[in-house]
Amino acid sequence: MRRPRSRRGDERRSAKPSSPAARRFGRAAQGKRALVRRHRSRLGAAAAALAATAVGVGLGWGARAATPRAAAPVSAPVPVLPGAEALTQQFERVVRAVEPSVVEIETRQGLGSGIVFDTQGHIVTNAHVIGRAKSFTVTLFNAKQLHGTLVGSFPPEDVGVIQVHASGLRPAVWAPAGSAHVGSIVMAIGNPLGLRASVTQGIVSAVGRQGEEGGGIVLPDTIQTSAAINPGNSGGALVDLAGRVVGIPTLGALNPEAGAPAAGIGFAISSSRALFIARQLIRSGHVSSTGRAFLGIRVGEVPGAPGVVIAALVPNGPAAKAGLHVGDAIVSIAGRPTPDPETLASVLATKKPGDVVTVVTTSPSGGRRTFHVKLAELPGG
Q: Looking at domain 293-377, what is its CATH homologous superfamily?
């Protein structure tokens, strides 16, 4: 992702006419201007004479002086009510407190944001900000640049951790689970489009949303917010009025009809979910426990298929144990139709390991079968 650039307009003009016709036009224009000046001079003299006559007539008839017009009202600042002033000051305090904990992360593929997790230099961000990179350029709020290295990344939850080595880092304060409430004011702090330490504000629009990232990845616990989230905000901080991180901005909604971003709809991974994954990555570089349901299939999309086609079965996985077949299409799970992998993943995101779900499949020949599958835990990585 490139930083936005501003273009300078070329305001230079040619000092001389570029052709004989232009030079003639220039001389003619000069003549006209001279004529206009002469006319103005004559008109000015006539106007002065008329003014003098009018004054003389007025004095001769004893006319009273004109009443002066009332002065136009002078604009004044609108008084700021104490509550509004207090809210503004709180915004400013939060920004000053949180900015030092938010960094810019740059790779060869683009840039995003990150949150300082501890004084050991661990920085929490999105897995899609990390991508496949192993090293990073990390820019602090004071423009100081540091070299960062990969600790671990877990794309199924879109959470990753990198590390820098520096003194004086200021870790962010994380809000406990359930701190985000619908209607509460939040601010997104990050580096959208490379504009370092930018701040937008909005409210929590909903909690417990599922965020669909595509490719079958569904985030199970996201916060919907009206605070603007743009490219580069990913991995930054969504904070409340106490300056606590309630989420990690991750997704901006896309209007499918317009094919453009939907204003005022963004999603952030909840702080509790982000910390659950990040702490495992910091501890071992891997995720050993996900707490998410797992069906145990690899899926494919086949044109004309009535559902999600089973491309492969994970050996000894829940689907394999239940007797599902490669090549069959899953047309519903837990009573919900599954026309595509994203829908299947979104249903699984609402389940827990150990839940038993009803899976209905259709074979290429049209045979329909029903299975009862006990879900396992999504493997870490």
A: PDZ domain (2.30.42.10)
